[in-house]
Amino acid sequence: MTKKTLFLLCAVLFSTVGIAAATEPETKGQTISVVDFGAKPDDGKDDTRALRRAAEYCRENAGTTLYMPAGVYRLRDAEAERLEQEVMSGKMGQNPERTIFKPYYPYVRGLDFEGSVSTTIDARGAVLMCEGWMEPLSIAGSQDFTVRGLTIDYKRKPFSEGRVCAIGENTFTVKFGPERTLTMDTPFPRVMLWDNKISGIYRSPFYFARQEVLEGNKVVFKGKLPEYMMDAPVATPHSFHFRPAILVWRSTNTTIENVTIHSQCGMGIVGFDSRDITIKGLNIIPSEGYTFSTNTDATHFACCEGTISFDGCMFRGQGDDATNVHGYYHDIASVEDGWATLTLKAPTYTHIQVADVPRVGDKMEIVKISTLEVVGEAEVVDVQHEAPQVDVKVRLNCDLPEKFEEYYLFNVTKLPRLEFRRSTVWGNLARCVLAKTRGVVIEDNIFRGSTGTAIHVGAESVWKEGTHAKDLVIQRNVMVNCGLGAGCQYGAAGIAVVIGTPDTEGTTLHDGVKIIDNTIIGTGDTTTCGISVRNAKNIEVLRNTVEGCGKMLETRSVENLVVE
Question: Nearest CA to 428 among 519, 316, 268?
């Protein structure tokens, strides 16, 4: 490792620690305590009723600071526990996501702060210990909401964790912990392993592997592992997507500061249809004694506005991207009497399972499906939608192309800036930062041991997630041992600025990209390059250090490229 790399590693780590340890701002306005409503930390009693009454008070009284003394609070719900039991008993099959993650599926809100105004949760040292699969913290229709210092975890993790205890020719055996008794009905949709050789996630997770459950909570999985993976930590999430630990929906000016999420039966934080979300000192990391954290993405933001900002955060062991910021490509199902019916054909619909509904005045780009080229823009002049409808009807201020089925509509109004600074992503499945938006700064971060390319910029038509980048800066980041497996984009270990669509020949969609002073260290194994840039113009690739990759830079369909 070069001196430059060591310097950058130390600089980013010190900056991250400094932010997390900074003096907290004082709370203002009226302050109430959850103790006033009957919740007492560490007494082992169920605090749910008291905590929900405190949340109700905040909903009804603007400007409230809700104080939670340090300690553990039990948050349990009978319906959430029933759902957990049904999933774990195999009632929903080996892929529960197909049942529990679909449009408008009913779910439990742990603490509901919908409609709150100028609310602050001051919870430094407080732990919400959830019992039953739920959405622990719901911030919906809120303004100026701050949550500070809270930790979210589950008494019974939504995954099982163990270690490899035997490796056969085409099988491996895992000895799981005693937290729950595993049976042949238990869903094992994915098996993830920690690879100490690269200090990150093993490159190839196993999906829906055949298994045999033995006595002593041992499970034999069909699959080939190298011998060096003996005693490797293993996690089997018992579902993929479900509700997030923290939902931010139709809210404005939300701050999440020094919050920790240890586990969740879905994503850590999901923001949808919201404006300006500031995240400082967030930790989505395993709880003590564990190696893995959330079942899927650590954070995910769709159809937002303003700025999504990360600073001084830590991510480790999650089952998908550290963050993904994007809007949605909508297919045009029909055009009749001036109304266009929009349908979202994303594999899992939206990530909070409600419709992405444009507003009057929103600008919609008309996008050619085969190439993702923008061929025009329209303004929404009327909207028809009523939940639980999954499709949306819009009237536009112009006519659509005659062959409308060959085009998407993309709401460019709901597209935020992204700032991702001074943070660490260490060991996750897929990418670290996935940016499909415009006005992006990714700087002074450390990315290590992700199976996918560390930074991926570009639309993905298979997920109906876009769009291409404009005004992108990626600088002073360190990327080590990334891009070895699932989620690797075009062989790039460090950075991929690309377009994922059937026909990209000759198109230049990304515009204004600066990749400067980054250090990328591959393993010389499967990564063919450190940086891949495709379908882009006005590109600067300056003073980057690339080691352990086939070559520094791979390009295709680029214009006005400057390399130093």
Answer: 316
Asked whether residue 398 falls in the same domain as residue 466, the answer is no
Provide the token pair at 95. Answer: 């892929």
3-state helix, strand, coil in the chain (%, to 5): 10, 45, 45
Give the pLDDT score at 28. Answer: 54
CATH number where 227 lies: 2.40.10.170
The 3-state DSSP class for residue 413 equals: coil
* Residue 272 confidence (pLDDT): 98
Distances (CA, A) of 546 to 127, 279, 337, 524: 42, 30, 56, 11
pLDDT digits (tens, 9 = 90+) for 343-399: 999 999 999 999 999 999 999 999 999 999 999 999 999 999 999 999 999 999 999
Is 484 a domain residue? yes
Specify whether 339 is located in the same domain as 396.
Answer: yes
- Quick one: which H or E segment has residue 439? none
- Alpha carbons 141 and 112: distance in angstroms, whole number: 11
The Cα 459–Cα 469 span in angstroms is: 9
Q: 463 and 553 share a domain? A: yes
Amino acid 285 reads I
pLDDT of residue 523: 85
100: enclosing H helix or E strand? helix 97-100
**Where in the sequence is the domain holding 395, given as residue range(s)?**
329-411
